[in-house]
Amino acid sequence: MKSEKNSKNSWKYKYIKSTNFLKIQKLCEQAQKHHLFCFIVGHSGLGKSHGFSNYIINNEFAHWREVDPSLAATAFYRKIISDFEGYQINEKESLNYFITLAAHHLTRAAQHNLFIIDEAGNFKKGMLKYLREFRDKTEKRSGLIISGPPSFYNDFNQWHRDEVRGIEEMMTRIDEYLFLEPPSYDEKKALCHINCLTDSTLVNQIAEECDNFRSIRKRIEKYHR
Question: What pTM value is reported for the model?
């Protein structure tokens, strides 16, 4: 009993190299190397954050920023600058100033760069024309990836049909789309096995009931508690 308890206490969650993970790594690599503008579409829990964090850890000139729902455009680009400079920017300058300075920080290195914007579904439609400006200022030295749920992709296309200002120009700049899929049955079972689930009935139940990696992880962590 004691050894079983110690084993559970020492357990640490492990990831698998899922199809989504491998596709994200490849797209990030291509976007960085060729300065592409890419759009990743996927529901929550399909491995975007893990894929991005793994790529950033292994690539010095890849950077990441999540869009907070409450952020206005000026605050968003100020946060990008703060990420590079290591402190909060308080200057009361124009939005154009912050976009230009953020772009400068991203492109000043001689190497190929990549900037990833996660949770882009939190962008308000009026903010996308500023993202286009940011892209225009960085495209010669950096790739750009935006990531959001299918609802954001659908909104994006609806805004294009409604001829919302700046959306058409934005869409023509996107080089590639990647649509993430739910984990396969085999991936679900592999994730259970690599995380030491020995109860075959439970493994099959998880594989049948869970449709994303996050819910699988919760079930695995519950098993190990």
Answer: 0.89
